[in-house]
């Protein structure tokens, strides 16, 4: 748990920002691609949004989550539990926006693209983001 807390603090405190102009509206600039074109997932995932990722950054990401209007609403990391248990550090992960208004952290048993059990760390970028991504 200390490793996950360290990851979360690092993401909030020190993570470099992606190119702001390219990331604030969908689609973000290359090398980001829509996740649903890479693996069998829906275009919009309730709770996360329409996801884009640089395939070279897998499995952790960052994944950029956009609402139905194409506004960047969240940056998501999908960190494999076994990597954390093995002591792997995920340092200096970039964020989609320097503004973070709230964070959710929860367990996921695995899904296409990140099949192993992992933690989702979701950084919301404005007060309404959580609600916009919910449905």
Strand count, sense and barrel status of the largest sheet are:
6 strands, antiparallel
Chain-averaged pLDDT = 88
- CATH topology, anyone? Phosphorylase Kinase, domain 1
Shape verdict: globular
How would you write the strand order of the largest sheet? Answer: 1-2-3-4-6-5
CATH architecture: 2-Layer Sandwich
Distance between the termini: 30 Å
Low-confidence residue ranges: 1-14
Q: What is the domain tally?
A: 1
- Number of strand segments: 6
What share of the residues lie within helices? 10-25%
Q: Rg to the nearest angstrom?
A: 14 Å
Roughly what fraction of the amino acids lie in strands?
15-25%
Q: Note the total helix count.
A: 4
Give the class-level CATH name.
Answer: Alpha Beta
Structural class by sheet pairing and helices: alpha+beta
Order of helices and strands: HHEEEEHEEH
Notable characteristics:
alpha+beta, Phosphorylase Kinase, domain 1, single chain, 135 residues, globular
Task: Report on the architecture of this protein.
This protein is an alpha+beta fold. It has a single domain (2-134), classed as Phosphorylase Kinase, domain 1, CATH 3.30.200. It has 4 helices and 6 strands, in the order H-H-E-E-E-E-H-E-E-H. The chain has a 6-stranded antiparallel β-sheet with strand order 1-2-3-4-6-5. A hairpin with a 5-residue loop joins strand 3 and strand 4 (72-80). The chain is globular and about 40 Å long. Residues 1-14 have low confidence and may be disordered.
């Amino acid at each position: 748990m200390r490793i996950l807390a360290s990851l979360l603090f690092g993401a909030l405190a020190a993570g470099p920002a992606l190119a702001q102009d390219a990331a604030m509206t969908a689609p973000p600039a290359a090398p980001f691609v829509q996740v649903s074109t890479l693996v069998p997932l829906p275009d919009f995932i309730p709770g996360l949004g329409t996801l884009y990722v640089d395939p070279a950054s897998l499995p952790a990401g960052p994944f950029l989550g956009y609402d139905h209007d194409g506004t960047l609403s969240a940056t998501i990391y999908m960190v494999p539990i076994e990597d954390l248990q093995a002591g792997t550090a995920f340092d200096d992960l970039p964020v989609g926006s320097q503004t973070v208004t709230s964070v959710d952290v929860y367990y996921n048993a695995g899904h296409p693209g990140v099949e192993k059990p992992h933690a989702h760390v979701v950084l919301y970028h404005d007060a309404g983001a959580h609600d916009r991504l919910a449905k």
